[in-house]
Design a protein that fits this description.
disordered N terminus; alpha/beta
Length: 347
């Protein structure tokens, strides 16, 4: 096929896809007690979102990621110091990161850190993960302790022979593998374990999903231009049947790099393990989506160069210097999605 024709067909398909996304519904969900989780770049985003909005977010589950503001706005620091630290590229000191967090809180860029003392945290590092070193996840535990989370409120699982992946009880590749879709069958229900840690005792999961996977328009949450901040035009949400009429909590699940719907379809949304737990525990699961970007774009009146070919969440600053704060474009977009879910239902 001629390259120009292929490009035109792709653009038509993208336009049709965007037009097919429904509006995210107002479901009267709980605006407080939100929980978050994520893998790798999604884990870093989960931490950023938790710290930035700790007044509303009560806990975070993190696979293979490190402390808040680890990258210090540098892609080099992100790639080396905050993934595979060494003698010449050490992790930033926990005390320094905690002091920077406190300063951001004093300026109002993030919520007061006092909220973090009430948080619950679940952390995971696979013993076969060569992408993000276990010391990085241990540093995240140290960070949470430093900002006031009590040791008994942090669970740290680091004895499973998992590669760099979100681990499940039965879905995905072999446990030790590191490869797309980065969902591994480790005979371990990580989604259930982290949700129980963050939310408290849960009812058993449903035998089969009975809710609906909603594909929704993300553009309205990014000032109409999701592309400029490396967000997809469409995201997903899992809405249990009970949550169509009853008030439910919200959990945000952030995919990792090369794990967006653009790369692996709906496998993260369908196979990560959250939905069956959501069905029986009145929990809406929000699955926001990124896209790969590599080039110039304009947001408002400002041109910016976005280098994000693997569709990672922004944890090093490609959307701007305030990426880790409440004003960060991706954080603000996801918060707007939650606010929409929490809006009162139409009479």
């Amino acid at each position: 096929m001629h390259p120009v024709r292929a490009l035109l067909l792709a653009l038509v398909a993208c336009a049709a896809s965007a037009q097919g996304a429904d509006p995210l519904p107002a479901l009267g969900a709980e605006a407080q007690g939100v929980t978050v989780s994520g893998l790798s770049s999604g884990g870093y985003m989960a931490v950023q979102f938790h710290v930035a909005h700790s007044g509303a977010v009560s806990g975070a589950g993190v696979f293979a990621a490190g402390p808040y503001y680890c990258a210090q706005g540098s892609v080099f620091t992100a790639r080396f110091n905050c993934m595979t630290p060494g003698a010449w590229t050490p992790l930033p000191a926990t005390d320094v990161l905690a002091a920077q967090t406190a300063l951001l809180a004093r300026t109002g860029a993030i919520d007061p850190t006092a909220h973090l003392g009430r948080a619950r945290v679940w952390l995971f590092s696979g013993t076969r993960d060569e992408t993000v070193d276990a010391s990085v996840v241990a540093a995240l535990r140290a960070f949470y302790l430093r900002v006031g989370v009590a040791p008994e409120r942090i669970a740290f699982v680091h004895d499973r022979p998992a590669g760099h992946a979100l681990v499940t009880a039965s879905a995905g590749l072999a446990c030790a593998v590191t490869a797309p879709p980065f969902i591994n069958d480790c005979d371990y229900d990580a989604a259930g374990a982290l949700l129980a840690q963050l939310l408290g005792p849960l009812d058993p999961p449903a035998g089969a999903e009975s809710g609906r996977v909603l594909r929704f328009d993300q553009k309205r949450f990014a000032a109409g231009d999701a592309h400029s901040i490396s967000l997809a035009d469409a995201g997903f949400a899992y809405v249990p049947r009970a949550c169509e009429s009853a008030r439910c909590r919200v959990h945000v699940a952030f995919h990792g790099c090369r794990q967006s719907a653009e790369a692996i379809g709906e496998r993260f949304v369908r196979d990560a393990g959250y939905n069956r737990w959501a069905d029986t525990n009145r929990l809406i699961v929000l699955y926001p989506q990124t896209i790969g970007r590599n080039g110039w774009s304009m947001a408002g009146l400002r041109w910016s160069f976005v280098f994000n070919p693997r569709a990672c969440w922004d944890w090093w600053g490609y959307t701007g210097p305030d990426y880790m704060t409440k004003a960060g474009p991706q954080i603000a977009a996801v918060k707007a999605m939650i606010d929409r879910l929490a809006a009162p239902r139409a009479p």
